[in-house]
Amino acid sequence: MTLHYIVNKKHNFSLKKSQPEFKEIFQVWREYENIAMHFNELLIKLRVQALGAIAIIGTISTALLKESAELPKYLFP
Q1: Which residues are 16's β-sheet partners?
Q2: I need a surface site. Which of 2, 48, 51, 64 has the fewest CB within 10 A?
Q3: Whether 2 contacts 21, CB under 8 Å
Q4: Alpha helices by DSSP H, the chain
């Protein structure tokens, strides 16, 4: 963003923001935020699916180990 110098009658300099450039920067920032939110949603979905997969693998492996183990019956009623 560039700043423009404004010269007053007394030759005092002051800085003023350019409005069109600020609006353009805000639009670009908003697009970047939308992209970041999209990727955050994808990461959350990936984590939930990974936890589901771990739960399924754990359940299946527990069931298979329970059936294949030759332990006394009092451990698994």
Answers
A1: 4
A2: 2
A3: yes
A4: 19-68
